[in-house]
Amino acid sequence: MEPSTGSCRVKKKLTDRYAKAIIGFYRSQCAQLAALRRGEGFLYDAEITQAREEVDKLKQAISNHQREHGC
Fold first, then answer.
1. Nearest Cα to Cα of residue 18 among 67, 64, 70
2. How many whole angstroms separate alpha carbon 40 and alpha carbon 20?
3. What's the pTM value of the predicted model, to 2 decimals?
4. Rounded distance between C-alpha atoms, residue 65 and residue 23, angstroms
5. Which residue from 11, 6, 17 is spatially nearest to 69, judged by alpha carbons?
6. Could you tell me if 33 and 49 are in contact, meaning their C-beta atoms sit under 8 angstroms apart?
7. Most distant pair of Cα atoms in the chain: their distance
8. Rounded CA gap, 42 and 47, in Å?
9. Structure confidence at residue 71 (pLDDT)
10. Which residues contact 15 (CB under 8 A, 6 or more apart)?
11. Assuming Cys at both sites, which of 5, 17, 28, 37 could form a disulfide with 47, CB separation 3.0 to 4.6 Å?
12. What is the rounded distance in angstroms from the CA atom of residue 36 to the CA atom of residue 42?
């Protein structure tokens, strides 16, 4: 498919969501590290797993969009 010219709202939306997901993943990891340093153990494993899955899902959506839409 020929690349589109101009901006693509779908790509922008996916990219914005991806950036927010990465920030959420990072925050969960920071919270986990703080809990470990306080001796509280692995309190955030589920949140980290969920955040990682969201990052991966959005990364795949961006790749699919680029392949299908050409932008």
1. 64
2. 27
3. 0.83
4. 22
5. 11
6. no
7. 55
8. 11
9. 86
10. 62
11. 28
12. 7
User: What CA–CA distances, in Å, run from 66 to 17, 24, 30, 39, 50?
Assistant: 15, 24, 32, 44, 24
* Tens of pLDDT, residue by residue, the chain (71 residues): 445 555 799 999 999 999 999 999 999 999 999 999 999 999 999 999 999 999 999 999 999 999 999 98
How far is 60 from 54, CA to CA, in rounded Å?
A: 10
> CA 63 to CA 71: how far, in whole Å?
10
Distance, in Å, from the CA atom of 46 to the CA atom of 55, rounded to the nearest integer, reads 14
- Residue whose tokens read 């680029």: 66
- The domain limits of the chain are 9-69
Tokens of 58: 């959005």
